[in-house]
Amino acid sequence: MARAINSEIKAGRGSPHGGIFLDIASRRTPEYIRKRLPSMYHQFKELADVDITAEPMEIGPTCHYVMGGVEVDPDSAAARGSIEGLFAAGEVSGGMHGSNRLGGNSLSDLLVFGRRRAGVGAAEYATKIGERPKVAQSDVDEAVTEALAPFTRDSGENPFALQAELQQNMNDLVGLIRTADELEQAIKRLQELAARVHNAAATGGRAYNPSWHLALDLRNMLLVSECAAKAALMRQESRGGHTRDDFPKMDPVWRKVNLICKLDESGVQVVKQDIPEIPTRLLDLFEIDELHKYMTDEELTRHRDGGSLSDTTAASEGGAVNGVRRETARLARRRRGW
Amino acid sequence: MSEEIERLSYDVVVVGAGGAGLSAAIAARQAGKRVAIVCKSLFGKAHTVMAEGGAAAAMGNVNPNDNWEVHFRDTMRGGKFLNHWRMAEVHAKEAPDRIWELETYGALFDRTPEGKISQRNFGGHEYPRLAHVGDRTGLELIRTMQQKIVSLQQEDKRDHGSYESHIRVFAEATITRLLTDGNKIAGVFGYQRKTGEFFCLDAPAVVLAAGGIGKSFKVTSNSWEYTGDGHAMALLAGATLINMECIQFHPTGMVWPPSVRGILVTESVRGDGGVLKNSEGKRFMFNYVPEVFKAVRDHRGRGRPLVRGPGQQPASPGAAAP
Amino acid sequence: MGYDAKLRVWRGDDEGGELKDFTVEVNEGEVVLDVIHRLQATQAPDLAVRWNCKAGKCGSCSAEVNGRPRLMCMTRMNTFTEQETVTVTPLRTFPVVRDLVTDVSFNYEKALEMPAFQPPAELKPGEYRMAQVDVERSQEFRKCIECFLCQNTCHVVRDHDENKPAFSGPRMFIRAAELDMHPLDAAENRKEFAQESQGLGMCNITKCCTEVCPEGIHITDNAIIPMKERVVDRKYDPLVWLGSKIFKRAGA
C-alpha cells in the first residue's frame, strides 16, 4: 500500500497538498462511520472541522520515529566512537529496534535504557573517573560565538523558510520509498542548503526568540538529514523502515551489516560495520525455517537445527563446543549439497 | 568574550526530559550523584506524552505464556534482525521490573479483573503485552516520573536544606554544544529560552536523551523539539550513529489541513470500507495488486524448503535453551 | 476557502507591551496556533509562543483567545466569523515573559510543596493489586495535561497576586484528591494538608476551573467538593476517618 501511495503521488496524481485521498464518506453512511470510528470522527471534527462522513481525507506518509541513533554499549549505554563520558538512551540511541520498532517497545525502551543503563552507567562513570575533565574557556568562547552568529547576519535568510525547504526535500526524496537517484539528489540539495543554513539570521532580541532558536536548531536538522540520506543511499536492500524501490528485497547479506555515521572535516562519512553475532542460545529461540528469511546459510550453521543429527544430539547433551558444531554443520551441509 | 556566563558544576547532566531523560536522572540521583536535567520545553511536556498505545513488558498478566523470550523474539522479528541482540535481550528481560517500579512511584495503570496491571494486544506482539492507561500511557509515564523527581527533591530539601541540592531542572533551555577535554566529556553549553542568557554546566558524564529527528520532515507526528539535537551533538563530539537509514513512516497520516497534519489515521478506516483515490478520483490500488502478489511471492521465495535429517524432531520454541 | 483574518496579538515583555494588529492568511480547517505560526514564519519571526505537540496533549499553548482561556491548538478559526478580529493575549494570572509566553513557575513551586505518593511499606514492586473501579477515580485527575488554564481562570488568584502564597489552585487540588483516592497511597492526611496548607477553604466553588479544562475533568464536582466534605467529616468525627482508611485497605 505504501508503495502504491508513493507512486501515485510521484506520478503527479496526488491530492493538492502532496498526499492522496482516503475516502470512506462516499462508501458508508454517516451513521455507520460515526458508530465504527467514533474517536477519529470527533478528533478530526474538533481539531480541524474535517467531517470524515462527508469528505475524503488527504493522507500521506508521515514520519513517526527514527530507529537510528547514537551507537551505544548495550550494557552501560555509553556512546561508541572517540568520546568518553557520553551516554544515550531513548529515541536518540540506536540499535535496540533494528530496522523497525514495534509499537509499545519505545516506552519500555525509555524506562529500561534510561534508568538501568544510562542513568546507572553515567553515575558509575562519574564515580570512577577520578580527576574531572576541565572545560576550556576557549571552547566556551567558541560556543558563544557560534550561538550568537545568527544575530550578526544582517542579510541572512529566514530560518522558517529554510526549515520548510529542508522538510520538503526530506519528505520528497528521503521519505518512505527511496531510490538511488532521489537520494543522490537529496544529498546534493542538502549540501546546497548547508551553505544557506550557515547564513540563517535571527531578528529581534535574545529573550524567547523563536527565529533565533530555529536558526540554531537548523545545524542539527541538517546533520541528521545528511546521515539519513547517505546511509539510505548505501544500504542496497529494503528492510523495515528503509525501503528502496530499486532494491525491493530484503537481503541476508545486508543484515550482517550496520551502517555507521561519523563526522570528519569533509562531513558525514558512512562506513560498514559487522553486526554483533547473535549467540546460539538466542538464535535457538527461533525455528530455523523462519531464520532463513533473515540469515545466510553460513550463519545458520550455529542454530540447533543448522547441522547434522549427530551435531544436534551432541548439543542437547551439552557436549558440543560452538566451533566444533559449526564445523560439523558445515561439513554436513556440504554433504547434502546445500 | 565580555559576556558573563553562569557556570555550575554537576556529576551528571541529562539532556532531555522525556521518559528516558527522567529515568536516567532518577537513577543517577539514586546513585548519589548531583544531577542537572536540561529540557527544551517546560518540565513534563516531552514528546513522550504523545505515546498512546502502551509500554510493552512481558509480565504475563493477561496471558501467562508470555515471557522475555517471546518478547525478545517479537522484537527481533519486528526489527528484521537488524537489532543489537543484547539490547533486545536486556529490554525484554528488564521491562517488567521497570513497569512495576513505576507503580511504586504512584502510577495508575488500567487493571485486570484480578487487580493486576492490564495488558493489551498490539501489532507484532504475540501476546497481550502493553501496560496502558486508556490512550494516554505516555502522559502517565511522564507525570509519574516528574512526580518521582519532585519527591526526590523533597527528600533533598529535608536532608540537605534545598530542593535543588541534588537535582536541578533547567526547563526551557537548549544545549547547543557538548564540551570536551581531549576525548572526555567535560560539560555542556546552552542558552535559556526565557532570557537568551548562556550557561555552562561542568560535568564528567552527559546522558543524551534528546529524542528524535522527525522535524526534518514536512509531514511528521513529532513535535517541534525533534530537531535531532542529541544525534547531531553526539556526532560533533566524536560519537558514532548507527542505522540512520531506518526511519519509521506511517503510510496514512493526515497531510491537510495543517491543524491535523501528522495525526495518524488508523488502519481500521480501510478495514471499515475506506478506499484510496488519486486526484482523478480513481481507486488506484487496483493497478498495484499484481505487484503486491509478486512482492509476497518474492518474500516467500527467499525461504528454503525445510530439509531435515532422518529422525530429527521438529523443534519447538519451548524446547529452546534459555 | 482561504481568507485574510484580522488578528490582534499582544506583544511585549515584563516591562509592558501592546496589542498589535496583523492580517494573516487562514485556510480551511486551521486552528489559532496555525495562524500564529504563519504570522511568525512570514511577518514576525521573533513572536514568542510556547507550544509543543499541537494535538491537545501536552498543554503548552495556553493563551487567552478573545478573552477566554484556551489551548491555541484546540481553537478552530471557523468558530469566528471572517470579519471578526481575533485577539490573542497571554494568560493573565502569570507574569509575562514575552509576547504570548508567561512565567508559569508558580505552578511548579506549588507542586514542589505537594507531599509525594507514599508507597505502601508492606508491598514489593509487582505485588500491587487494585480494582479498576478504584483506580478510575484517581485516573480522571491524572488526565491533567498541566495547561494551567484552571489556575489562570481561578478568580482567587486571577488579579489577586496577594492570594498566591496561600493558595495552590485547582491543579493542585486535583493532585491532592488523586492521592487521597489512590487505593494504595500510605499517607493519611491529604485532606488536612489541602485545607491547611493549600488553601482549599478559599475556593468557593464557582466551577470556572471545570469549565475551561480541555480534558473535561470534573475538577469541582469530583475533586474539590468531595475533599471539602471529607475535611468536615474528619474534623468532627474521628471514627469516620478511621473507618474510611480501614475500609480502603480492605477493599484494595
TrEMBL record, chain C:
Tagged with keyword Ion transport: no
Signal peptide positions (record): none
Keywords: 2Fe-2S, 4Fe-4S, Iron, Iron-sulfur, Metal-binding, Oxidoreductase
Domain of life: Bacteria
Pfam families: Fer2_3 (PF13085), Fer4_8 (PF13183)
Keyword 4Fe-4S: yes
2Fe-2S ferredoxin-type domain ranges (all copies): 5-92
Cofactor annotation: [2Fe-2S] cluster; [3Fe-4S] cluster; [4Fe-4S] cluster
Pathways involved: Carbohydrate metabolism; tricarboxylic acid cycle
UniProt cross-references to InterPro entries, sorted A to Z: 2Fe-2S_ferredoxin-like_sf, 2Fe-2S_ferredoxin-type, 2Fe2S_fd_BS, 4Fe4S_Fe-S-bd, Beta-grasp_dom_sf, Helical_ferredxn, SDH/FRD_Iron-Sulfur, Succ_DH/fum_Rdtase_Fe-S
Family to which this protein belongs: Belongs to the succinate dehydrogenase/fumarate reductase iron-sulfur protein family.
Protein's recorded name: Succinate dehydrogenase/fumarate reductase iron-sulfur subunit
Lineage: Bacteria, Bacillati, Actinomycetota, Actinomycetes, Mycobacteriales
